[in-house]
């Protein structure tokens, strides 16, 4: 844990706007985030949230999707039309569709209530890291675990042995590697790898993910790199940070 505590201290002072109307959750967020050096500004309506966003320019937004005044998705839309501030949505179990819509509108990640502190801090770290380095996949050689992607040579190795990927499989792997540890929805991957007209063709994606797993995962039945986020998409897990 020492490493992550130091990492928190380095990012200390990151300002987090919390838009949430449940007092218990706001209290817990304030306590835990302040303890890790974050500055927290809580507001309990969407209107106040948009005001605070414009006035304070936070480093990150934690956004409840079920607010008393405006739909949380409208806030995602408004913030995204203005800039790239990371947004993590807080959703309730069962509101899967709403969550996916918020992600497709440009929210960066989600937490399902009730969530633990470690999960919260991990999501925040990934979101803040992506603001600092938007395309980690631009590194000439990307390594995680036994997987190595040599971007310049379009070469993939697992445990030192070259793995042959089709062009589509390679593009899909690149798409994952460009967003390490970040949630990526089906529709984002489809649009990125296959093109804008394929946003709804999730079956293509699932077929190619299965092929890619067979080639790069130590155990394709229990993937460690390409992890499914049920009903939402995937997360390329590297634990880099
Ligand atoms: Ca609520």
Overall description:
The chain is α/β, with parallel strands linked by helices and 241 residues long. The chain folds into two domains: 130 residues, Rossmann fold, CATH 3.40.50.2300; 101 residues, Arc Repressor Mutant, subunit A (Orthogonal Bundle). Helix content is 42%, strand content 22%. The protein contains nine helices and twelve strands. Strands 2-1-3-4-5 form a five-stranded parallel beta sheet, with helices on both faces. A hairpin with a 3-residue loop joins strand 11 and strand 12. Helix 3 runs parallel beside helix 4. The chain is elongated, with a radius of gyration of 18 Å. The site of calcium ion (CA) has 5 residues, from loops.
